[in-house]
Design brief:
This protein is of the alpha+beta class. It has helices at about 25-40, 125-135, 155-160, and strands at about 45, 55-60, 70-80, 85, 95-100, 105-110, 115-120, 145-150. The chain has one domain: Peptide Deformylase. The longest helix has 16 residues, at about 25-40. The structure holds zinc ion. Zinc ion (ZN) binds near residues 89, 90, 91, 131 and 135.
């Protein structure tokens, strides 16, 4: 089910989410709904607080051929390197800005079966993971913007800064 995305400013986007104590059918439904909602909005990541559910649950999929990453109670174990790139958010339509993030991260989380998983990510996936972890802690990427890029300049910025 597609759930309306909460748009900033909204207090729910600024509150830390609760850890999931037990993975239930509701948790699985939430993961399914988050995925559907993310895809409906052409997003690459979404956190439960963005649909008003204050639980540490998020979903990430950068490209449609990628496996969907479903994270419950994710925790950053390690971050290294520095990466500056453009970021956006479903809760902040038309806001684009550069943000400095770790280039590589190691996170642990539970999958929907309750298995403790580890994910090593770099580049844009690492960025997306950090963006969603911030959501779960009640932070928006606008707090970290170094340079805001106007909507009409986004394409040009991408052309100038994408080298692969
Ligand atoms: Zn976001």
């Amino acid at each position: 089910m597609i759930i309306p995305v909460i748009i900033a400013p909204d207090k729910r986007l600024q509150r830390a989410s609760q850890a999931v104590v037990e993975i239930t059918e509701d948790t699985e439904q939430l993961l399914d709904d988050l995925y559907e909602t993310m895809i409906a909005h052409d997003g690459i990541g979404i956190s439960a607080c963005q649909v008003g559910v204050m639980q540490q649950v998020c979903v990430i999929q950068i490209d449609e051929e990628d496996e969907v990453i479903e994270m419950i109670n994710p925790r950053l174990l390690k971050g290294s390197g520095v990466n500056l790139d453009l970021e956006a958010c479903l809760s902040l339509p038309y806001v684009y800005g550069t943000v400095e993030r770790f280039d590589q991260v190691l996170v642990e989380y539970f999958d929907r079966q309750g298995n403790l998983m580890e994910l090593e990510a770099d580049d844009y996936l690492a960025r997306c993971v950090q963006h969603e972890l911030d959501h779960l802690a009640g932070h928006l990427f606008t707090e970290k913007i170094i340079e805001q890029i106007a909507l009409e300049n986004v394409d040009q910025w991408m052309e100038e800064h994408t080298h692969d």
